[in-house]
Amino acid sequence: MQTAELLVHDAELIATVDDARREIAGGWVAVTDGVVSALGGPGDPQPAAARRLDARGCLVTPGLVNTHHHLYQNLTRAYAPALTGGLFDWLVTLYPLWARLDEEAAHVSAWVGLAELALSGCTTSTDHSYVHPRGAGDLISAEVAAARELGVRFHPTRGSMSLSVKDGGLPPDSVVQDDDEILADSQRLVELHHDRSATAMTRIALAPCSPFSVSTALMRRTAELAATLDVRLHTHLAETQDEDAFCLQTFGRRPVDYLDDVGWMTDRTWLAHVVWPSEPEIARLGAAGVGAAHCPSSNMILGSGLAPVAELRAAGAPVGLGVDGSASADSASLWLEARTAMLQGKLRHGAAAMSARDALEIATRGGAACLGRAGEIGQLSVGACGDLAVWSLEGVRFAGALSDPVEAWLRCGPVAARETVVAGRLVVADGAVTHPGLDEQLAVHRRVSQRLQSAV
Questions:
Q1: What is the pLDDT of residues 168-180, one digit of tens each?
Q2: Which of 234, 263, 267, 315 would give a disulfide with 207, using CB separation of 3.0 to 4.6 Å?
Q3: Domain 64-371: what homologous superfamily?
């Protein structure tokens, strides 16, 4: 038997979330060359390993997958003037601050934000970076560099805005670009960073921001470019009832109709929020295989509503979780989003409607499907990426939780990962980020935040 690079052994339970949804009491998982090379139970022979990680008293899950984020927004967390408005008020208040973004700000916000996610068991994250001020530099490449330094799997999207206030949109002129500039940079970033291999650490998607901040022409041309480059599409859609009203007034169409009109009704697409689709629209999204990034904390803090998660899943739409930047209760814990998704599911449809296993599946397999990586990430099976989280079930929080480790994991919190492993390498160990540069990055982050939040 080949020597493994990492062996996680003697777990209280391994929840593989594989095709058979196997759960292995007393189990172990081996990672070699960045992928899962073997799994077994207490009676199966374990391979020799260069590094052994004792998981006694712990639940082991696949690494969690974050399908929607705005990393730069952690530079304006809990910004007092923006705390009491709805989505449109919140955006208008913060756009002038975000107009000060540059490569340093993009790098440090990504570094700190991805570290925060890793502490919550997240091994793969997307990012929707749609603010590109003139002269700011290559913000996406700055984010990619931060992810590579930390060693996390990263799917940034080349976001964009092309309609400013003068065009009937919300953002100021200083943060919008014209369609040709956006599309040219989108293609450049795909050619520079997009890795199509099954174990890719970096992939790029294209992501015009929303119906109220980009032109119809840009939406159509982006869909055509994504098909040509064979990359995925992402945008905000059906987040609020204000958006419904905007689309009806501007396009004479509801948001889902508009999505279809511009060529986005495809399984290449995943959408952020999807709070307000009608029953027929849910069926259309599911039939087309359009994914949804469920952002429960953000939807609550902005008063957006309760997304129809169960209905979308039943219709066949992949559903993952998103922490959604500073709008998401100003935290970025994917564990928190999983727990909140579970609670919202019970609130919407009754106590039996959403279990911890349902929420875990959304946080792993669902997210993988949204990102076009089903079978590659979001599950523990031989050949899948060696991404996993180890969660301690011991101590005061778990006293008395003896009968079901998965339910205990999501009910008895708050919880952070004890270890977070990406491609067989520990990004978090003993509850702390392993990279030695965290304190330095936090100091830079504070300086950059102060610069952005100074009087506009």
A1: 777 888 889 999 9
A2: 234
A3: Metal-dependent hydrolases (3.20.20.140)
